[in-house]
Design goal:
single chain; alpha+beta; Jelly Rolls; 4 domains; four-stranded antiparallel sheet; 22 helices; 12 strands; 63% helix; membrane; transmembrane helix; cAMP-binding; cNMP-bd_dom
Length: 608
């Protein structure tokens, strides 16, 4: 439509001018209709293109959201697993309602269906089946942690859709499908109403068999789901009374089942047993037999729930402290997330204290098993010998950082060097707060930060003051890393002089964010100098060309008016060129050079 409007306005102006100048109308109906048709076609094509692009964008967004892999340890899936577990328990408790649908009509002496119970049981069962269907869909989009990567931290999340589907099809897919099949609804809505005569009496046994057949996979699915929730989120319920209510509900659900319809007769036969004839000794025997079993069960339950109870106590104390200090909600959420993340990784065990109490050789072997494979992924340590790597493994400490937490800020002292194993971070600098300067870069597994500490540790004449960080590092996701504190790094650097090598120098420069930023600024400054030189040369050539044109115009002088016009034009052009050149020179003088100060390089030449 824009082309049509511009064409129409142009034609309108042309026709008006032609009408005024010549007094004749040159804008005919045919030309107008032709322009109108061409404009409409152009506008329609643009509109179709916009629609196609919009549809493609919306489809890509939708497809991208569908293809997204869910994290099994994420908050959304943890919350959904708890909801699904509750729905599974409710579904198992609803299934016995189908036994009360077939009833005997006393008046007609025939088998009929209770309509109210039929509708109630069918609706409730269909409602719980929706949760099973949603869970099956989520299982095809839920990643899993590779077992081989669980040595340290959470492990590596597998996001391959084909691998996820194969794993689910081999595990619980068949059980979930058997549990979600609407067999009781089919029996009471289709099969039983079609039965006539004596065959209708067998439908009761058929319904009983089907309900019990689906009862097994539905009950069997509860325990793995419960273990998955406790493995990912730590606990199922936040409070002790909620856990007691959950276990009591499971007990009531399982204790009412009887496989014999003559239970009352069997219960009466228990009293026919002739044991001790002295009634006074019976209570004593009961106490002596039941009391050890009771205390054994209590001891076992306490031993299995000790860690969970300690975590509940810590959480309750933390909540009381946060309420007492009136902390804002965002800080409270960060504290809760960190405590939950720490519990998931350590299960409440103090790993450092546990390792310190072990012998030195055993501690070294354990550290080597935990850290060496991950440490070799850091490019700086690929070419080091085993003795140096053992020393590094012995002094490395695992650290965890939650999402959106600041690891170090620009201007703060650096007290540890981090080697990233998993996660994504953003490192940025303003070059000491310089106006208009900002540099940022993403780092991940295999990278490191805090290289200022390495320069300080390798300098034999360094002061006792810790170096100042030149960058701000923020965790974009949950980060797992190994930390080497300043004293340990100083000890390793002083004891093992093989750390000083040319190869390590090149590796350090290549992976150091500080050196990368300096190199980028150095290239930018060189490009600005080159651009400035080219601009000055082009201005000088333009000035010479105008002066030659002015000299030629004054020499030929075809007319006095043309000579005056050419001289004024050349003078104005020269004046503008000189003004622009002086203005650019003043701007370049006012703007400070963007080149950073060259980073201090570690003393890699000490033993070369």
């Amino acid at each position: 439509f824009q082309d049509w409007n511009s064409g129409r306005s142009t034609e309108g102006r042309y026709s008006d001018n032609n009408w005024i100048n010549s007094g004749k109308i040159s804008f005919t109906i045919n030309s107008f209709s032709e322009k109108l048709q061409r404009g409409v076609e152009s506008g329609s094509e643009r509109f179709k293109g916009i629609r196609r692009s919009f549809k493609s964008c919306s489809f890509n967004r939708g497809f991208g959201s569908i293809k997204k892999v869910l994290d099994p340890q994420g908050p959304f899936l943890q919350r959904w697993n708890k909801i699904f577990l509750l729905s599974c328990i409710i579904a198992v408790s609803i299934d016995p309602l189908f036994f009360y649908v077939p009833v005997i009509n006393d008046d007609k002496k025939c088998l009929v269906l209770d309509e109210k119970m039929e509708i109630t049981a069918g609706v409730l069962r269909s409602f719980t089946d929706i949760f099973y269907i949603i869970h099956i869909i989520f299982q095809f989009r839920t990643g899993f942690i590779a077992p081989s990567s669980r040595v340290f931290g959470r492990g590596v999340l597998v996001e391959d859709s084909l691998a996820i589907a194969k794993r689910y099809l081999k595990s619980y897919f068949v059980i979930d499908v058997l549990a979600v099949l609407p067999l009781p609804q089919v029996v009471i809505l289709i099969i039983i109403p079609q039965m006539r005569g004596l065959k209708s009496l067998n439908t009761k046994n058929l319904l009983t068999f089907i309900v019990l057949f689906q009862y097994l996979p539905r009950v069997f699915r509860i325990y793995p789901l419960y273990k998955e929730i406790t493995r990912t989120s730590g606990i199922l319920t936040e409070t002790a009374w909620a856990g007691a209510a959950f276990n009591l509900f499971l007990y009531m659900l399982a204790s009412h089942v009887s496989f014999n319809n003559r239970f009352s007769g069997l219960f009466g036969t228990c009293f026919l047993l002739k044991g001790n004839t002295h009634a006074g000794k019976t209570p004593v025997g009961i106490i002596l037999n039941v009391t050890p079993v009771h205390f054994t069960v209590m001891t076992y339950l306490q031993s299995t729930t000790t860690r969970l109870e300690e975590m509940r106590v810590k959480r309750r104390d933390a909540e009381q402290w946060m309420s007492h200090r009136l902390l804002p909600e965002n800080l409270r959420e960060r504290i809760r997330r960190y405590e939950q993340y720490k519990w998931q990784e350590t299960r409440g065990v103090d790993e450092e204290n546990l390792l310190c109490n072990l012998p030195k050789d055993l501690r070294r072997d354990i550290k080597r098993h935990l850290c060496l494979a991950l440490l070799m992924r850091v490019p700086m340590f690929e070419k080091m010998d085993e003795q140096l790597l053992d020393a590094m493994c012995d002094r490395l400490k695992p650290v965890l950082y939650t999402e959106e937490s600041y690891i170090v800020r620009e201007g703060d002292p650096v007290d540890e060097m981090l080697f990233i194993m998993r996660g994504k971070l953003l490192t940025m600098t303003t070059n000491g707060g310089r106006t208009g300067f900002f540099n940022s870069e993403y780092i991940g597994a295999g990278d490191f930060c805090g290289e200022e500490l390495l320069t300080w540790a390798l300098d034999p004449h360094s002061s006792s003051n810790l170096p100042i960080s030149t960058r701000t590092v923020r965790a974009l996701t949950e980060v797992e890393a190994f930390a080497l504190v300043a004293d340990d790094l100083k000890f390793v650097a002083s004891q093992f002089r093989r750390l000083h090598s040319k190869q390590l120098r090149h590796t350090f420069r290549f992976y150091s964010q500080q050196w990368r930023t300096w190199a980028a600024c150095f290239i930018q400054a060189a490009w600005r100098r080159y651009s400035k030189k080219k601009l000055e040369e082009s201005l000088r050539e333009e000035e010479d060309r105008l002066q030659d044109a002015l000299a030629n115009a004054s020499g030929s002088s075809p007319s006095l008016g043309a000579t005056i016009y050419a001289s004024r034009f050349a003078a104005n052009a020269l004046r503008a060129l000189r003004r622009n050149r002086s203005r650019k020179r003043r701007v370049l003088e006012r703007v400070p050079p963007m080149l950073l100060q060259k980073p201090a390089e570690p003393d890699f030449t000490a033993e070369e």
